[in-house]
Each structure stands twice: as structure tokens, then as C-alpha cells.
Amino acid sequence: FLSDPWTLLQLSAIGLAIGAALVLNRWVEPWLEDHVRGVRSRPKLLRLLAVVLRRTRWILAALLLWLAGIALEATGRFGDPELVGVAAVLASAWVAISVATKLIRNRTLARGTAFLGWGLLALAALDLLGPAARMLDAYAFSLGSLRVSALAALKGLAIAALLFWLAGLLSHLVERSVGRNTDIDPSIRVLIGKVVKL
What we know:
- This protein has 198 residues and is mainly α.
- The protein has helices at 5-36, 43-53, 56-75, 82-100, 107-125, 129-138, 150-180, 186-197, and strands at 140-143, 146-149.
- 78% of the residues lie in helices and 4% in strands.
- The radius of gyration is 23 Å and the shape is flat.
């Protein structure tokens, strides 16, 4: 597989695209940063743009990889540039996931969610999600009549983390709306906040 000239050409295209993105980023990021600073009147937009700005190198890498894939496909001489396509999907997914997980306030949870999400997408892009799930399902132990596999444990952890995050988000929203209500006694406001969290 690695000695195939088409594979070597695709790997070279991936390396060149990533290298070019890192070089271009030295000029593009400072230029964008100068323009982003002009949006100080809108703090929420500024925060979002700052998050996107820190991922400029990966955005450039994704764009260049997609362009490389289109260019290689346009030649029509060797076949479908699958490796370049997978690399472009993974780079794009990393940008989208890392920006989306910035909504999670807990940094450790955000980082873990980003790596887990990207890992799942990587397995799906490489068509390894099914085999990986079967392998995790094979590792199991029994608790009476209940069979607990590694796959089931991971699913349970993911669902629990999602529910805790949603609960935290909901309690924060309720606390904020209750906090604005001056008709409610301060001690009752604190009690409502604690009950909602529970």
C-alpha cells in the first residue's frame, strides 16, 4: 500500500498542505487579529471570533486539503484521492468540534469531549467504527444476569457526562432568571438555585 505511487502522491499532498498552512498562518493570523480587534463593541461576537482565530492554522490546513483533493481528482489519472479526503474531513471535524466544545465551561470536560468526538469521527472516516465497537463489546464481565461490556460502560459515561452538562446549563439559566427577579427573597433565590442543581 505504501509503495503504491498514488498513495505516496496523496501522502505528499497531505504533507505539503499542512506545511503550507503552517507557513501561511504566520501572515494570516496576525492580519485577521488586527481586523477582529475592531469588533470590540460586540463582546459575544468578539469571543466567538477569538475562538475561531486561534484555529486559523487548522482552518487553512482543511481548506488546502480540500483543494488538494479537488486538484488530484480533476487529473482523473489515478483514481479517487481517498487519503486526502479523509485528512480533509478530519481537519475540518477538528476545527468544528474544537470551536463547538468552547461552549462547555469546564475545560477538562471540553477537552475530553473534543478528543472523544474527533476520535469517533476519525474511526468513522477510516471505516473502523464498526470493528472498534465489536472489539469493545467483546471485553465484558457479568454481574448476575447483567452483561457489562466496555462499549456499554463508555456509552454510559458519555450519556452521564452529557446529562451533567445539560443539568449544569439548565441550572445556570434558571439561577440567572431567578436572580433577576427582585420580588423573590434572596434566601429563597439561593434555595431555588440549589434545588434546580439537585
